[in-house]
Design a protein that fits this description.
Number of helices: 10
Largest sheet: 5 strands, parallel
Order of helices and strands: EHEEHEHEHHEHEHEHEHEH
Structural class: alpha/beta
CATH topology of the largest domain: Rossmann fold
Helix content: 25-40%
Number of domains: 2
Shape: elongated
CATH architecture of the largest domain: 3-Layer(aba) Sandwich
Number of strands: 10
Strand content: 15-25%
Length: 252
């Protein structure tokens, strides 16, 4: 850790090309990446059965790149049935859109410019058309996709939400958090996704961590909702792609 820079905990998986890290370092901040959870696939047989019956669906929604990977795992060596290509297919954000395009041999989806569930819901309403007899298949994870599903149902859509992965606390999370929080200047924690909230809540309780003088920032409305439901108040909420807004909140 660079002691000349203000440290910030980012509860997300680190990567070599992570734009959060480079952006924060350029503003005299020291990002400390801690992986809060890992994911385990489940219910893949049920998902496979649904994927092999595209005639029963109006289309598919990919909420995260992990949903794309779950579909690919469920299919095994079998390609995605070609009938899906003619349906209403959506993805939330550029990363998810790219994952679907690459994984399923140029599968076209709408939603690459959507930054949150509300954006994607509005896009689906605008592009779907009035006939909503068949459901949209939405593979999802525990705590992921709930906002989108509820908004779509409120708009008259049928959604077949199939939970295909779940998050569990990463085995190194506790030790990494204990080490990071030893530094008195560790005043800011940034949460990425509901799973980071669940892992942290258990840790804060078990180790009597006070949040009174810490700045807690949520990335995404789903993360903010998870924090509120857990009794944690977010001091700021930013969209995943808006790193400048994140930096402004940290330095405020």
């Amino acid at each position: 850790m660079d002691r000349n820079k203000r440290p910030v905990i980012l509860l997300k998986v680190p990567s070599s090309d992570d734009f959060y890290g480079s952006a924060l370092r350029s503003h005299n901040l020291d990002p400390i990446f801690i992986t809060p959870s890992h994911f385990v696939f489940k219910n893949l047989k049920q998902l496979q059965a649904k994927l092999l019956e595209p005639h029963k669906y109006a289309g598919i929604i990919f909420a995260t790149p992990r949903c794309v990977h779950a579909v690919n795992e469920a299919l095994g060596k079998t390609p995605l049935p070609s009938c899906w290509r003619a349906l209403h297919n959506y993805s939330l954000g550029k990363n998810t859109h790219s994952a679907a395009w690459i994984t399923f041999q140029n599968l076209s989806t709408l939603g690459d410019h959507a930054v949150n569930a509300n954006n994607l819901c509005d896009l689906i309403v605008e592009t779907f058309g009035p006939k909503r007899d068949l459901p949209l298949l939405m593979p999802c994870g525990n705590g992921v996709g709930q906002t989108l599903r509820l908004r779509l149902v409120a708009q008259g859509f049928r959604v077949d939400a199939c939970e295909v992965y779940e998050s569990r606390s990463h085995p190194d999370f506790i030790n990494q958090m204990r080490h990071a929080l030893k530094f008195k200047r560790m005043e800011t924690i940034v949460f990425f996704g509901p799973s980071s909230v669940r892992s942290s809540l258990e840790f804060f309780g078990d180790y009597n961590v006070s949040l009174k003088d810490r700045k807690l920032i949520a990335v995404g409305s789903g993360t903010r909702k998870a924090m509120e439901e857990s009794g944690m108040q977010a001091d700021g909420v930013v969209d995943a792609a808006d790193v400048d807004h994140l930096i402004n909140i940290i330095k405020k």
